[in-house]
Amino acid sequence: MSERKFNQVGTRPIRHDGFEKVTGRAKFGADFSLPRMLQAAVLRSPHAHAKIVSIDTSPAFEVDGVKAVVTGGDFPTVTREGDRPLYNDSPDLAANIIARDKVLYHGHVVAAVAATTLEAARRGAEKIRIEYEVLAPVLDIESAMAPGAPILHDDLVCQGPAPIPSGPTNVARRTVFSGGDVEKGFADSDLVVEREFTTQMVHQGYIEPHAAVADALSDGKISIWCSTQGPFAVREATAIVLGIEVSKIKVTPSEIGGGFGGKIPIYLEPLAALLASRAGRPVKLVMTREEVFRATGPTSAARVRVKMGARKNGGLVAAEVEMHFEAGAFPGSPVGSACMCALASYRLDHYLIDGYDIVTTKPRVAAYRAPGSPIANFGVEQVVDEVAQRLGMDPIELRLMNAVQENDVAPYGPKFQAIGFRETLEEARNHPNYSAALGPNQGRGVASGFWFNGGMQSSATVQVNEDGTAVVATGNPDIGGSRASQAIMVAEELGIRAEQVMPHVGDTESVGYTDVTGGSRTTYATGMAIIQASQDIVRQLRERAAKIWNVELDDVAWEDGRAVATNGDAKTVEPLSIAAIAKQMPATGGPIIAHGALNAPTAGPGFATHLCDVEVDPETGKVTVLRYTTVQDAGKAVHPTYVEGQMQGGAAQGIGWALNEEYIFDESGVLENAGFLDYRIPVASDLPMIDTVIVEVPNPLHPYGVRGVGETPIVPPLACVANAVAAATGKRFVDLPLSPPRILAVIDGD
Predict the structure, then answer these.
(1) Which of 13, 170, 511, 726 could cross-link to 144 by cystine, CB 3.0-4.6 Å?
(2) Do 446 and 468 belong to one domain?
(3) Is residue 201 within 8 Å of 374, Cβ to Cβ?
(4) Quick one: 634 and 736 in the same domain?
């Protein structure tokens, strides 16, 4: 696409919501209250796997202040219906909200209580009597697939291409992508490297716990205020669980204190809504930090086997990737997207990608930033690194030799348009950090990563105020600065400053349908809807100017935020600013407002290359990250500061995942580290300054060339850190996290 000169895109205005957030005025989920509001608490299963024999809720009402109690039996039965993915998932969605006849993980909800105080609600929940028949837990992939394993769902039948298990099984789905002949490819290779890798469940680590307030109105409508990445998704999912029409539910998103995919699913909203309906009063339900860890979706633990063949000159010939992902209690791990991403960075004539979705008695997994791709990448990029090492090649040169380019076809089907993968490799190779000196026990790692990015449905409304400023309203909660990017896009089209545009996140009744803030889709897809609406605003402004000047529309141009006459005697009139036109709205046709809406089924894929230098203490096994560099193709950085923030944030989370983070379960399936004291995410002292390099290869699918940037940065760090540790120690590490005990075990040869 031709290079466009921008005035606002690429600038760095202060975010519109910044003042409210740094001064504490912004309202997050738990900050919202209503008159006569009740507080709610949840009773959770003490077992990882058990049948519910009986529930007696009557003792809860003996506690003064208890107004309502609900159990699974109070919710309607949900069946699989329709052709939309969410409807096909409906029974699992409903059963994860509250258990019916069986609990499937420690912390699974079995009842909820609303009372006049939180303490009364908690005491009421504790008094509920439940009889369980305890069953054997299924805590890992091997035990889930073993002959005679306890079956979590009697009606679960594996989906996917043969061969697959028959009858009731814990294997929910098989996904396969293949091309060429892998056996021939390996036979034609001069070098074959094969390794198996494991990763553990990790949590997104968002700072704000889940929170919801619900009010059931006398006309049967329900209003919900909650912390979410997608109010329309909350509306639809809650309607499914409650068995009512979506038109009966209004969802207002609060400010959101982090999500990273973990606040796309619902957990609290149907509980609060049904309690409010029973009590006839608003109900607030807020998770504790322990509940967040025990009962919301982490990402999968996984086992990944990678086999790769190459020629002596470094050309990759064949690859085979087999992956088993834990889904937790219900099907739906990100193994499908892992299969899409695993080999998408490299040209291969022969490949087989084979993925399995496995249920276990653990919390149901949820999306975590580029779901599945970091796990697949952890194995693939280490094997690529080992191939380069064994061939005596520079790891970036080997990647450059095999990197996909425009018109190459990805293993999952689409042909790449303009992409910037090679450019990220070249920028990394030329970065000063790639040639910085290393000392004893220090090593440098390289890894690249891919995410396909999302499109999906978006809408936007733009309107002109009487003073010439503008408002843009969408249904996308702002997680990483999307208000600023949306204002910039309106400002770019209208020819004004971003500070003159007020971005607004609306509820489900005040803005058009918009899919979630996630999948790196917001600035891309919602941005296109905003541009559509803004261009319509410009057309209307030209029409109003034409009326004022009594000329034809074609005689009016829009330049630098002003209507300019271009024909005849009208050329002598002074240009009209937006403010001047806005003052005459009543006389020229009324309010100036426009809408944009689209379904963007495809998006420009994202590539990144990371560099990491570490030092490993051979006596303690402690890994210190010395330098970290991220290079990423953003297409076009609408707000470079927030693009850099996404790159740094993804790297920080990936480093934590690589070095420290993991869910630790005891033999009965109880999570032992359900808090930030024992589940250790990186803090400032754990990380160096993370250097960022933005590459801009315009995405031809977007008017500005934008690509999504939020997912890709977390893909390379796991392998990048592991490759650096391997370089520092001379040992290959295949199990995450790379904690000191694991490091020492490998160094000492255990």
Answers:
(1) 170
(2) no
(3) no
(4) yes
CA R_g for the chain:
27
Q: Tens of pLDDT along 107-149?
A: 999 999 999 999 999 999 999 999 999 999 999 999 999 999 9
pTM for the full model? 0.97
**How many separate domains does the chain show?**
3
In a domain, 7, yes or no: no
How many CB atoms lie under 10 A from the CB of residue 192? 16
Q: Are strands 50-56 and 129-134 parallel, antiparallel or unpaired?
A: antiparallel
Number of other CB atoms surrounding residue 599 within 10 Å? 10
The structure tokens listed for 208 are 């704000």
Task: Give the other-Cβ count within 10 Å of 55's Cβ.
Answer: 17
Find, among 32, 487, 483, 526, the residue nearest to 253 by Cα. 32
* Amino acid, res. 481: G
Shortest CA distance to 139 belongs to which of 53, 197, 201?
A: 201
Q: Where are the beta strands (DSSP E) in 143-262?
A: 171-179, 191-199, 211-216, 222-226, 249-253
Out of 585, 600, 615, pick the residue that ends a domain.
600
d(CA 312, CA 29): 57
Strands 191-199, 129-134: parallel, antiparallel or unpaired by DSSP?
Answer: unpaired
Residue 37 sits in a domain whose CATH number is 3.90.1170.50
- Find the domain containing 93 and state its range: 33-135+208-257+263-295
Distance in angstroms between the alpha carbons of the first and the last residue of the chain: 55
Residue at token pair 């208890």 = 66
